């Protein structure tokens, strides 16, 4: 009889043995347009069994590395502050054991919880953001903690010149102005990822992937689909490139599986998780 | 050219001329299982044009009464406290003009916002609840303001013996025990509605309708479908019965239109809105 | 190798050998709210293979009778008048061979095409209507030929006292007034079917079944779901009862299969087709 | 951090401590019309968290009993014989430890695997079947092992007079004749369940619930929806009644969650699992 | 309280103050394959609030221009001639006030209504068509007014050499022959748009965008998806290019939102509306 | 009245007159992840009427050739061996009349049935595979006959160096090792198709197209979507190229229409069928 444990395929290491600890942060309470990212981590685990553990792109197998899928946090849907502090606490605990936290959202705001813990340990951390949206508002619908403000809140922590944003193609005019003044903005494309990788070599880096950086053709399963995005192979190459850096935290957010009944968005997210985990694992050995 | 104003069919009175003011409270931020009630009010307005303004059940027409559809509140998805106070403020304003507030949720928690304003004006108000769930938890996932606690929060305001709950068929053991000790609980059925109407005659009453009191066969478009509910004609009769009381506030919550792609749940909600508005209007003339 | 002919299960008699001729009228060009009934006949044929040819209700088998499924008409979507005259012509041809026409819509307006041919042959025909809506408007959105006017157009042909309507629960006030003045209206229920069967014994009868007479719980797959309808067994009993009359034409309209992704509405329509064909066949032997 | 074990709510007893062992048999390889029951057990586990552990119907809580959710079998989709023998082996193992096997299908054929093991231990076992279909074919599409033959295969094991079938409303003529000759057939309704319970008191009984016995209004999420079924409360009462017998094995089959996007069918199946487990647990104490 | 007016985001100018007047023509009565474009304008308005008013592509904001969203026409579904003359009348009225008509379909036939009014005022107008289909049939299913004949009917008005068609990849052989003889046909690609812009400089141009010119990967939400189309950025560039011409009328047709449950097609249409309105507005200042 | 025969558009030649015989093999009994390819052939036939018979890519019309759509096989869902031998028998019969078999699956395993018959007649046949997956397992879940083993079973028949695989991007490590040792593997792309066409000129070739070689953006309607595939025009070019060879059998598998509710995947499959049939027909004349 199969065990009824439910992990991402090939991520069955015990916590103590793991180099990377994957966990889910199923929270979408501030999503204003179309909710549903709360279902992402469960959906990714289940559909990961449509994948193989082997990557023909990297010629590596997940089962050759030590990755623990620690399950999902149980987060409050009524209190954003509590949800974020629970995420911070878990991330802090993972970091304190010398392991790499790899979080699956949830809406993009969950990044703030993980990032705060990472920034405590690595105060000189840089952030690489793959995203369709700037997420740089000062507040949104009266809330300072929102999916639409998450990168602004990260900027509150680390300040100018430490955020590197790729693929951005949506935001308010003021957000774009803020981005140009205070961050490194590479809109529309991922063309200059390699150049940034050169600059950041040797520095601690947190990578946050909002999956809506992908074109909606490739990834319709997200709350706010934004035409004009990148394709799968472009994103995969970029992820492999940045994973050669000294990555100290990583997350993938904004899959809303129920908006893509074909399952293709979830399958694409699964494949990105596998490839990214392999790239990060290879780096760490 | 048709105007692009968007109201519930037949509810085009100006605010100042209206006896009843309908408004939407599109908020589902604390919904823990499956969100989506935020889409209810917009969906109900649009699909109301599949209805007639005439009710063959009551032989009355909406256009013979004065009802204003005042549109939707724009509520914060990150801050539950703000959302509730915005709802209270609107309700208070409607009441201050001597009009009846009729709110369309949204998750059941929005009832708390409206009820608080009603209870300020009518401190001796009773509550009639049609619902599948007790909603009597003290807290849920760390939050005291939650769809699962809303009736408990109302009890905090008005205390023992003033809440009359029909159709309840789900909850924790402790909630049922609390219900039996502190409220009037009529589980599973609506059989005793008429009896309660007798008792409450002459008293101010707030009516809150969580649409999941209906059987999922009739109403699958809700976040937490709960088998064993009542059918449409039973609920309609009960609504007509309680509308003969001195109703000082009313709401209908928990339609999640996207879970019923057939549109039947939204159509059923529309028909209940029409019938209920007619019954409340007739009472007021 | 199975033939790629596509008929309703058990209806494979040649036209010349048949007592009943089933045909599809996939037209929904005047449907104002939600179109899709054009897909009904194809969907019913395909899903009929989820049924058996045997009815345990009547203890009869379709294959013991002679029924020809003659396929679908190809109707103009731009010209309502052409579509109706094509339907009339086909019906006339079937009648001229002494066979019973059994049409599957399409929107309810297709009934007019079939009925006109029937009324030519049987000028004293009565109509039994099972429906949620009166369909008695004089015109609708500027058109006199519309799903919302079909029964009024039939009244134009046969006049007062010859239309018997069951299950009606929606319409404009003026339509209900017209119905009470000029037709036999039995709203909300099918309780008095047997009584009407008594009265119409020996007279030619055309039966038109708008499937939205069923409750949306049972039959969500229709363009304008209207709560408060009848259940399957009630409708089945009524159909069996009226089929004992001298039926000279019959139709079933308003299945929109795509609004019920579960397939249950189509399956229910298939079962009604089987039962009705058996009842009509038995009568003829 | 929540464990990432994935069990039905409240069924977290260790195997050794359990009185009842729930397991999934995700197999639908012989389903000829519309597949998908393979997804049922996973779907039921996930959505069970929309329920409470407490039943207001029985005033009992799942957590007061000892139930182990042992997860899903991994069954071959290419070889029906292997799949069935794997199910038999697991059932035999559970029985050998003195525990009650409670299987969640899968298509109805999985019942044969479990039943064969039960009949080895209890050769005088009776079978109570709740179902829309007779499932009594000798073979189907060339296969003797099929969802459409499962009760015939059980009859092969136990012979005449030991099968008691309720709610049946579909099948070939020959199947109905076989049923009347060799089994106890109570078609269309569950009215005579209590009478059969009287007769079977003191005898070992295997109960197989094909969820399509429910009306499609209540339970559209199944491969072959069949109009005219029973409602939820009727089935619940029947299940509680038969659970007072000496039940030696039980299963629930034919949920296809993807055909009911509203989730209501899965929610209904979850509620039946909870109620049935409580009734069977109470009996055993 | 938000007003319940329902406009495209940022298009709230009064009619008198507007330079561009957007209106919806929700009509799909001649659609023969899969209807649903009637739902497009309402869907675009609602989902436009998932966009920003700011375009990072053009560095402009909608709120800096004067655009009136005048709502939807109420068109007859039974009489194509009436529907078209209603569209013509509205377009004529907009033109008579010196404003630019910008119509959102509906099926492609609605273009004929708007174009007729435009051609009255600008008899020397050219037409630029972005489309997957030629739409050049003389008649279709007996109707001369059909989505499949619309460009032929436009040719009836303006004759040879005035229609410039891009992206075409589907049609009958005779339609392609007609296109090569009487129009400028640039099949499969948009490569030669710039060349045509050169040629038409200074001439009045009507632009009609059938969204199925996009690849179904990018835009599955349409009645007749046709593989091998262009991507979003290619279409956006082409729209910006042609908007530099003297545009005297514009429309966008053939979104059927319900065929793309992910919402990505509607979101893409919204983004094209925003970008196109900005390009047309900038030109007019 | 239209006949109710149901063929792919323009494929109405009688068997005896045909050069190509199209047939469906609706079987998906070994599909382990998400079933549904059984619905493909019926869906392709129905939606083919959204296409024209004319190809602007090849400037040819289906109706100028002789193609028979012979309908669907009725295959056993319980016995894989029977299903495959039925497919072999049909293919053998088609070949014995000197016609080209063109099969529409079903899951990829159906290829084995057709291929076995082809290899009997053409023992030196080569295989060209377009696919996302290697399908080279020795066994899968205990079954040697499985969608995951089909190319391995073909290798069993024809041995080393005769299988040419394009677009592969998923499989176990051992499968890729096997592929490199025993077959010609051209992973990820179709770049080297022309080169292989050169090599195989004059040799009999069987072409098997697993539609999941397409990117999920283009073709989400498949059981196991695998990101990183090719686009439509690339596949079309490759199909036209290989069709110039001496093709002795061809199939297209793995459309699961129900996973792409937009219908775009089915439409794309239809277009590929049309183009492929035209290319194969032109070759034969």
From TrEMBL, chains A, B, C, D, E, F:
Organism lineage: Bacteria, Bacillati, Bacillota, Bacilli, Lactobacillales
Cofactor note text: Binds 2 manganese ions per subunit.
Superkingdom of origin: Bacteria
Family according to the record: Belongs to the arginase family. Agmatinase subfamily.
Residues at which Mn(2+) binds: 108, 131, 133, 135, 210, 212
Cofactor(s) this protein cannot do without: Mn(2+)
Protein name: Agmatinase
Single Gene Ontology MF annotation: metal ion binding
GO biological process: putrescine biosynthetic process from arginine, via agmatine
